[in-house]
TrEMBL record:
Its main location: membrane. The lineage of its organism: Eukaryota, Metazoa, Chordata, Craniata, Vertebrata. This is Lysophospholipid acyltransferase LPCAT4 isoform X1. It holds the Pfam family Acyltransferase. The chain crosses the membrane at residues 37-59, 80-102.
Length: 534
């Protein structure tokens, strides 16, 4: 058990992808004194081991043809001579870093009984220690890691599966390769996977990716514990950096770790047919054993998200940060509304709906160009864009959805009008995906389930979209938990997009063209309830 008391460090976390180690003054001084002595020595010895491993690891497949490399190297001198040496040096790396003892609970199953080991929680790059306790099984890694000195040689040594995440064909080949290995009945050695796919702060088990469960073979869940007074090993999306994690860990006299093997999990036929169900059930089992919740959080690229049906909702919505930046730049509520209205006018003009930093600043009425650059950066990050161009529709809809400047029905009418490219009164599957991505401020790639619900009566119309989002149990949560709507009114006020235009039969005609503001905004950018104007 990890001990915690008022005299120890505290840990700050907003969601599973944030971990910040906060040390007391005494702990900070102790770490600086011990670290100045231990860290250089330990890192030097670990690097020395890696350098010795480098050429030895390359010998494993040296001189073999492509056909021979495509088969497991499990016999001959390449196995009985090189494998023990690499294992010993790998264990020495972690010994020198302060992992003197590894407590093992339970027994590791053989390859035929459990072709894959599913390890969680995934806390840090230091989790690679588990490889030494499982006899260096093959792993799945990014193809980019192959070019990293030493790391690339070690991935080649244990014949790991490499995948280029940006290449769909590479991902398909990796899936086929993994399945072939897992159903080989012991022909290929055991594989080890971290089904969370990224590191977390350990407060919950995030959604498991289905890769380890695609073949429908038994898996052995493996729990990784760090029962120490200070939780120094964790390295997450935001918070403590990997350098800080390494420094704090090496500054300790020693670091405890426990590897716990759970009984082999044999899937039912239903789980074999549905890898996602299989993954979810194993996740829940491991979370129950750990005594922490199993959640729907997942890291998509560089964006921490939460799953809601087929939707991925960003945990750090760019719209909320954008609203905060606008207020910090001095924009009042009325000025934010005017700026968003100008965005709609721009989207309807010949200039189109894409804009760069220099165009965004005057559109938003910003005095500081750096603020516009930050906003562009927020949306470029979630859209994985390499340039500084942003989609004004996405900024308008996502900011409006969290600011309460429009009621939900008005917001949806504006969104539908923007994404009904053919002006046909209906949406395609791509339109639905783009529209939902704009509303939540992050691209949506798995909206098939939503589109199916919308298409039950034919091509999805605005009424269908409103009906499903407000009545379907899953998507009701989107409105109640994620948006800050001004109420789901029966007759929406006009939005900037519909001024002077005939609305469809889903939108009412207000007596004037003023947008009703159901919310006031606090100084920190958070929306606060207020009375509607008469």
């Amino acid at each position: 058990m990890e001990r915690q008391n008022s005299h120890q460090a505290t840990y700050s976390s907003q969601h599973p992808f944030v971990h910040t180690l906060k040390l007391t003054r005494a702990q900070l001084i102790r770490g600086m004194v011990l670290g100045s002595i231990l860290v250089p020595i330990r890192v030097f010895l670990a690097v020395l081991c890696f350098l010795i491993m480098w050429p030895i690891a390359r010998l494993r497949l040296a001189g073999l043809s492509e056909a021979e490399r495509s088969r497991p190297v499990t016999t001959g001198w390449r196995r009985w001579l090189l494998h023990p040496i690499i294992w010993f040096l790998s264990r020495a790396v972690f010994f020198f870093l302060g992992f003197f003892w590894v407590r093992v609970k339970g027994c590791r199953a053989g390859c035929k009984e459990a072709p894959v080991l599913a390890v969680a929680p995934h806390s840090s790059f230091l989790d690679m220690l588990v490889l030494t306790e499982t006899q260096l099984p093959a792993v799945v890694s990014r193809s980019e890691n192959q070019s990293i000195p030493v790391i690339g040689a070690l991935l080649e040594f244990n014949q790991s599966v490499l995948v280029n995440r940006k290449d769909p064909e590479s991902r398909k080949r990796a899936v086929v390769q993994i399945k072939e290995r897992l159903i080989s009945n012991g022909y290929w050695p055991q594989m080890l996977m971290f089904p969370e796919g990224t590191t977390t702060n350990g407060t919950s088990l995030i959604k498991f990716k289905p890769g380890a469960f695609l073949a429908g073979v038994p898996v052995q869940p493996v729990l990784l514990h760090y029962p120490n007074k200070l939780d120094t090993v964790r390295w997450t999306h935001r918070g403590t950096t990997w350098v800080e994690a390494l420094w704090h860990t090496c500054s300790q006299l020693y670091t405890n770790v426990t590897v716990e093997y759970l009984p082999v999990y044999t899937p039912s036929q239903e789980e074999k047919d549905d890898p996602n169900l299989y993954a979810d059930n194993v996740q829940k089992l491991m979370a129950k054993t750990l005594g922490i919740p199993a959640t729907d959080h997942v890291m998509e690229g560089r964006v921490p998200t939460r799953k809601l049906g087929g939707l991925s909702l960003p945990l750090e919505p760019p719209a909320r940060e954008t609203l905060s930046l606008l207020h910090k730049d001095g924009l009042r509520e009325s000025e934010v509304e005017a700026a968003l209205s100008k965005m709609i006018d721009r989207c309807q003009s010949e200039q189109g709906w894409r804009a760069g930093v220099d165009e965004l600043a005057p559109l938003l009425g910003l005095t500081d160009r750096q603020t516009a650059a930050k906003i562009c950066g927020l949306y470029s990050k979630v859209n994985y864009s390499k340039d500084d161009m942003v989609d004004l529709r996405q900024i308008y809809l996502s900011v409006t959805s969290v600011s309460g400047l429009l009621g939900f029905k008005s917001l949806l009418h504006t969104a539908f009008t923007l994404y009904d490219r053919e002006c046909s009164g209906s949406l395609t599957a791509v339109d639905v995906s783009d529209l939902m991505g704009a509303l939540v401020g992050s691209p949506q790639y798995h909206t098939e389930e939503l589109y199916t619900e919308l298409s039950l009566r034919g091509a999805p119309t605005e009424q269908d979209l409103f009906r499903v989002l407000t009545t379907h149990p899953t998507y009701q949560k989107l409105i109640s938990e994620y948006f800050t709507p001004g109420g789901v009114e029966s007759t929406p006020p006009s939005s900037p997009l519909t001024k002077g235009k005939a609305g469809n039969n889903n939108a009412g005609s207000p007596s004037d063209n003023r947008t009703t503001l159901p919310y006031k905004t606090a100084d920190n950018g958070s929306p606060l309830p207020s009375k509607k104007n008469d």
